[in-house]
Amino acid sequence: MAVTLGMGRKLLRVMAALVLPSFATVGAAAASAPGFTPGSPNVAVADPAVPRPAGRSCVVPLFNGTQFTDFSNHPYTYAPPAGCGRAWSKVVLEADFAVTAGRQFDRTASLWLGGANIYFGTTQEPSSTVAPSWHIERDVSDFASLLANPQTGQAILGNIVDSTYTGVISGSARLVFYPANVLAPKVDAPDAVFPLSDGTAGGPVTLNTGTDTLSRTLTLPTNVERAYVDVFAQGQGGDEFWYSCVPDEFADQLQSCGGGSFRETEVSIDGQAAGVAPVYPWIFTGGIDPYMWRPTPGVQTLNFLPYRVDLTPFASMLNDGSPHTIALTVTGAHGYFAVTGNLFVYQDHGRKQLTGALTANTLQGQAPNAVIGNTVTDTNGIVGGGVTTNASRTFRTSGYVDTSHGRITTDVQQTVAFANTQNFTIDATQYVQAIDQNTTVNSTTKTRQGPLGIGTTSTATYAFPLTAKFAYTFDADGNIVTSPSQVTQGFTRHVAKKLGALTLYRSDVDNHISTSDTLAFTDNAVTGHSNQASTQSFRFSDNLGSCYGRDVVTTTGTLTSATDGGGCAGGRNRLLWFTHPDGSPDTSRTEDPGAF
Question: Residue 141 is inside which H or E element, if any?
Fold first, then answer.
């Protein structure tokens, strides 16, 4: 007969509570980050720090040494830096977090300013003997218009500290400003940012179902030339392991979560579909098997990257002076997703009112439907086979605005595809679930100024590959004996920008981690683990000479090695100060399709 794994399936979450023009040489011109010590159990990631321009900087603290012991929000105030003017080449958010040794879940952390999200991520879990600490950085130069004026903000990091959950989380955060100079000119930042968040203080919005909506009605400037929305969609609760779910009709037989595995965020303007943001399969440090993520967490686990949707073809609609509703929905949400976003706009400083038209939108009317395949078999209680889920949409949005410097036409063509294959082996001796998933984006954006203007073409491809295998073995009485798990997770991003046939900029990001561990059980309780090992490899390069490579290897919960310069000339990491080696959205002139 088939084995019932109600308790085993819950381990995916329950095990979280176990007591367990100048180059910046990375680590030199960049701000200090925690060093690497072989044998250390502290957090070790291969991600690059944010590169900085040479020269002086000004630091504005947001909060310092704040303890997070409950679910109250922690407000702070901000004022622009004194002594650094209002023209900045770069602004970087830095934050340091730590949690005391003991028992504690991973927690979601987010920072807000003027209602806008400036950081979103999760925390590292501690163990009874390890009190982890970690450092995060984010390029927040796009928020320069917001940072030019005093603001209020808040840190949201809900936590419980009691006799059971003893880990106390603490943190500090600050903004670092780099004044513009001849070698590092003023950042080409958006002119305004409009938060898509929970109220004026900020906060993510909970979307429980695919019909729930985060919507904000805004009256925008009437001279918008370009518009982008950065989207975060984090699976929580029943959606934390959304990539492992199957359609409802198979959930009981396969002893898995229902609701299917397809998730996708859609952006709409006044009810009209305007763009698509794929959902990244972040895995938190308590996910599946907590030992797999000690000391190296999953891709972006501590510091999520938003996905940027280009709304420029719709600029003419936004410029009519009327209120417009920008909305986000998550297809397939099944209790629940925490969602937020920021709308960035560039304005024409030579004209107060722009006119134009939306000339094409083939996304409207294309439902985000998934095709399900079923090879599940059940022979005398022995279940095998699997479920496939595939979805793909190809669409085009196009429009123009008549500006003070001529007509600017923007044409966006994208294919967003999702594929998830899950195979199962379920009998009296084992439960095995193997997942092979990938989300891909292929995007081409063409812009042209004036009837005879030279066109700019920007291409971008993304891939979010995930393979995971988790299993349980049972004794003759049906008790769990072992639970081996393996995960490989990746993020790749390739962008290129051309002026006619001339390549202006090209960059490549590849971030991958492979990790494994085996839990041991006695009387269905975890009593130990073995064979923990992980490798994270991060690579970045561009056509201007930037190169970054780092490989981090761990075994038995400690750092084995951290090697820099992989794939780089002379084995040396070199980053131009204006690059985005982490793969975050970039509105600088290097990548932005609307800027020369």
Answer: none
Cα 15 off chain centre by: 24
Least-confidence region, from 62-76, 316-330, 438-452 = 438-452
Residue 155, strand partner residues: 74, 111
Task: Let me know: does 153 contact 114? Beta carbons within 8 Å.
Answer: yes
Q: Among residues of the chain, what percentage have pLDDT more than 70?
A: 92
Look at residue 591 in the predicted model and tell me its pLDDT.
Answer: 63
Residue 14: φ, ψ to 5°: -65, -35
3-state secondary structure of 467: strand
From the number of C-beta atoms within 10 Å of its C-beta (0-12, 13-18, 19+), residue 392 rates as middle
Residue 577 near residue 586, CB atoms below 8 Å: no
Tokens of 284: 């938190």
CA distances from 4 to 10, 244, 349, 433 (A): 12, 17, 65, 14
**Residue 157 has which token pair?**
């990091």
DSSP for 294-338 reads: SSS--TTTTSPPPEEEE-GGGHHHHTTSS-EEEEEEEET-EEEEE
Q: Rounded to 5 degrees, what angle do the CA atoms 42, 44, 46 make?
A: 175
φ/ψ (deg, to 5) at 490: -145, 165
**pLDDT tens-digit map of 362-381:** 999 999 999 999 999 999 98
Q: pTM of the entire structure?
A: 0.93
- Separation CA 212–CA 331 (nearest Å): 9
